[in-house]
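Support case: user asked for a sample of complex input and structure output to validate their parser. Sending the pair below.
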Amino acid sequence: MKTSIVLSGVGGQGVITAANILGKAAVNGKVNVHTSEVHGMAQRGGSVYCTVRMGDVSGPLVASGTADALISTEPVEALRYIQFVNKKTKVVTDINPVVPFTVAVGGEAYPSLDEVFKEIGSRAILYTVDALGIAKKAGGSITRNIVMLGALAATDVLPFDADILLETILENVPEKFKAVNKNAFNGGMQALTRR
Amino acid sequence: MQIIDEKSNKTILLLGNEAITRGAIEAGVDVATTYPGTPSSEIADTFSAIARYLKSQNQTPSFYFEYSTNEKVSLEVAAAASFCNLRSLTCMKHVGLNVASDAFMTYLYVGCKGGHIIVSADDPACHSSQNEQDNRYFALFGSAPMLEPTTPQEAKEMTRLGFDLSEQLRLPILLRTTTRLNHARGPVKLLKPKQSKGKGFFEKDPDLVTVPSVARKQHPILLEKMEKAAALSDVSPFNEIITHGKKNRMGIVTSGVSFNYVTEAVKDLGIEASILKLGMTHPLPPQMCKRFIETCDTLVVVEELEPFLENQFKAMAHDMGSSVKILGKSTGHFSRLSEYNPDIVTGTLAKIFKKKNPLVVPAATTVKLPRRPPALCPGCPHRATYYAAKRVAPETTVYPTDIGCYTLGKEPPLEMADLLLCMGSNAGTACGLAVATDQKIISFMGDSTFFHSGIPPVVNAAHHNHDVVITVLDNRTTAMTGHQPHPGTDTDGMGNKAKRILVEDVVKGCGIEHIEVVNPNVIRKTSEAFKRALDFKGPSVVVSKAPCILLENRDKRRQGKKIHTFMVDQIKCEGCDICINEFGCPAFYHDEKDLVQINETLCNGCGNCVQVCPAHAIKVRKEEE
């Protein structure tokens, strides 16, 4: 049994943190796990993706078309990594675009969200979440990644209980931020919407 | 702090780099040194974090750690500790070993006393590097025993046991890793750390002074040590043969992260073959390789980058008079370029073993996606420096650059990075350009780069009176690799107070007569300083001082201070787009009505755009706005 998850977004949105927490949750859930991440240049506002593989796996990299889930904190960044999905992959994306600077300066265009969602929906099972909105309501836009983990937990892709993921999140944040993160996670779990 | 507080025998999730640090601590390491560089940085950062954490708990760390000024110095510091019979570790990125290679090559002649691990973090695919050189050749070049881990667990064990191997051979060990190991996380089982020694003693020995007569004596000793290393490689627990399915005459030779891709591919494709997994890749285990070649008709070699194993297997097969077929890079099955992944390895093995490849690569999307390259952060003081310099520089000015965040000044609209070779090359190439052209030259380097290798070319410029403007972007940190301290900061890697060395003082000592010290966040004055520097005949240095905005804002948040973001007053905005097309702050964008807006969550509140806007249309954002 293998579970492969791709997490994508924009540098600074907490994608690496989310992948790390997911990995720790797997260890807590007594599941074998390997994760990969990007550091350095990619952090400065660039496109970022991490992978988390669990179960009977030898390494962290996900082969094309084999992801069980792709979760993204930004819509275009979900589509950018579409090579990892197949018809059964659950794609969960935040609906709030972060327009890259190449649009303002380089004359490039940010596609319409309808077009992005239609394209993803034609290739995989698409779910959307207003992660930024939920995060703000929970108490801080910085918890957008935690909202996405909540949404991921609601997809039933994970080989361990959602409770273990939530406990792991709370283990890894300072006392004063526990309530905010719990709200964000639960908000994400409840908000998962099939497109 | 889990990595040191967790009980022994517990399994925890560790980054490959953290696992290396843990392995060194389990082996009782005394001295660890580095110059930071992706993908190696977190090895050193973990030592630093542990030292600072223990200090906060009023405990004394069991090791000494430093961010040295460059990789060569870091290797020398650790080698000296080894001569005093202490265990030491030095870590660096692959190109760092080029810098350290002068020490490295002769250090191997002399050999070490206390165990010494030298970590080279290679970067196939150039995720964060200027080249993808294969540092396994340094092991061959200098005669260093080499270990290559496949997982964080193995990285920890190789580091831990590598110290024993190093002491047995009295040679430093090259622990060669790649990005997909350094930046992979996996479960790691902790063992009880050994006690470190603290202080050693330097026993004088004339053979530690490598004059020619000594070097001539040491070289044959090194070759003898490598004979012994080969025998140890034959019994190394890190070299093993794993047979999948019924034993036949098909073999796969692999090492490092490629082993992971091979293992899954073999299982997924139902391939029957024997895998020779090499963990000690220099010297190769001679008897084990010989026996493996004898049992195979076909050998597939799966290794990233250069045909390091492949060529050695060809040579071994030739010497044995074997007719084994060796498939790899020379037969066109695998590439010498970039990194491998499950797609490449599964696809190629499916072809070779005549299996159906189950992987279907979906067609690329036809939706045109905007590129999202990394960019200088909103509020980055480097942007202000670039903008200020460009306003007074002639059109044909050449901008040699260097390695750090500021290399991102290459992107439009600034486009102020014209030439880059390696750390410190900005000022060296500036000197050459001043000789070779009549164009104006303004070079850029960061403060950490200045201390690393930027000083000798400044001396060169002063001594030869080259007509250049050399800029030091002093943001008081080594930002790109994760905000490490350097000689220009007032704390060191252990969290102790340290002597802060001022760039302008060093530059003065280098013989530079025209020095401008500016705050780039005052753009007009910075432009004037660049103008004066350009007008000065001869070498001048501009030291542009402002802290990295990420650090400044982090400190503000910790102190509970508010960060005021900015917004565009749409009544005043004339739509000239200077903020976007010339200043290029990525927090700016055009909304759906084509109005210029500032993204509130991206704005870091530097306010430099206020100085840039000719219509005075940028103002502090009030809470309710």
